[in-house]
Design a protein that fits this description.
The chain has 90 residues and is an alpha+beta fold. It is built from three helices and three strands; from the N terminus they run ββαβαα. It has a single domain, classed as 3-Layer(aba) Sandwich (GIY-YIG endonuclease). Helix content is 43%, strand content 27%. It has a three-stranded antiparallel β-sheet, with helices on both faces. Strand 1 and strand 2 form a beta hairpin.
């Protein structure tokens, strides 16, 4: 089975969200239909970045790693947009 770590973006909120899922299409449907606790405020989420893993534990660890880096950037007065740009560059 495949698992995905993903970063999605809402233009209306100007916010990013990091998550993991086995079925990315279904997960996006839940994000954009208001059936996800943390993203239900917006309905315009779009995928900006994905990584694929063969084990759920790997995906969960990567999600945690991304969120930890995001938190350290906020602590240092940076924004998640800057983190996303770093990930896009490799």
């Amino acid at each position: 089975m495949e698992y995905f770590v993903y970063i999605i973006y809402s233009k209306s909120l100007d916010r990013y969200y990091v998550g993991h899922s086995q079925d990315l299409d279904d997960r996006m449907n839940r994000h954009n239909s208001g059936r996800s606790k943390y993203t239900k405020i917006a309905r315009d989420w779009e995928v900006k970045y994905t990584e694929r893993f063969s084990a759920r534990s790997e995906a969960m660890a990567r999600e945690k790693d991304i969120k930890r880096k995001k938190s350290s950037l906020f602590t240092g007065c940076f924004y998640f947009n800057e983190l996303f740009e770093l990930y896009k560059k490799g």
